[in-house]
Amino acid sequence: ENVSFRPSHHKHFFVPKLLLLLTMKTAAIFALLAGSAAAFAPSTKPETVTSTTLFESTDIGATAPLGFFDPLGYITDESKFVRYRAVERKHGRIAMMAMLGTFVHNNKWTFDGYVSPSNDLKFSDVDSGIGGLFQLPAAGLAQIILVCGFIELTWWPATQLDGDYGVRLGKINNWDQEPGKEIRQKNAELNNGRAAMMAIAGVITQEVFTGQNLAEQFSALHVSPFGDGQGYF
């Protein structure tokens, strides 16, 4: 029997299906949460070993209301900080794209034609929730992973920790002419990325437990999954 990742009538998951989903998505959820764990560390200017003197409240990423936030004292040297900041930025960018994709696909905006002609699978046939990932042929997923790896190795290398790949969009980010804009925009990127990491982790988790994607949950006013009689609970 083919496993359906969206239960009919959006009621209860069968236990084997829930366990399968949890197993397949646990790694993704923890990866996103690990990225967001670095999400509250600030930015660069390190010299000594005490975090209070390492960074200033004006550094990129140290924004109101928390400012510099490192209660456990993880940031003790410059190289560690720069690495954590790069990881946070990268995961934030991925999460923002993931949320954009969620909004687009949940609204059933799809490409015309076939995602896999050999499997007679159209773009419109792919589930709009996380189950769609497992409807794609293995060869298709492998192609996506290979393309992402190629981009990271050749165009946007992970070893370039400043995250600046030289993309300029005219007046949108003309930082040479308006230095203040650079700080504002980099802070906005980090904060939006932090929000997106938490959001996509929540979207994945709620769909696993309720069987409804984001759009379905809102349209059904399913705002209390632990007590309104819908979904898994």
TrEMBL record:
Entry annotated with the keyword Plastid: yes
Its biological purpose: The light-harvesting complex (LHC) functions as a light receptor, it captures and delivers excitation energy to photosystems with which it is closely associated. Energy is transferred from the carotenoid and chlorophyll C (or B) to chlorophyll A and the photosynthetic reaction centers where it is used to synthesize ATP and reducing power.
Subcellular location: Plastid, Chloroplast
Keywords for the protein's UniProt record, in alphabetical order: Chlorophyll, Chloroplast, Chromophore, Light-harvesting polypeptide, Photosynthesis, Plastid
UniProt name for this protein: Uncharacterized protein
One GO location term (cellular component): membrane
List of residues binding chlorophyll a: 88, 91, 186, 189, 192, 194, 206
PANTHER family per the UniProt record, alphabetical: CHLOROPHYLL A/B BINDING PROTEIN
Highest taxon, organism lineage: Eukaryota
Protein residues bound to chlorophyll b: 93, 152, 161
Chloroplast listed as a keyword: yes
Membership in a protein family: Belongs to the fucoxanthin chlorophyll protein family.
GO molecular function: chlorophyll binding
GO biological process, one term: photosynthesis, light harvesting
SUPFAM superfamilies: Chlorophyll a-b binding protein (SSF103511)
InterPro entries listed in its UniProt record: Chloro_AB-bd_pln, Chloroa_b-bind
Species this protein is from: Grammatophora oceanica
Pfam families reported for this sequence: Chloroa_b-bind
Main location as per UniProt: plastid
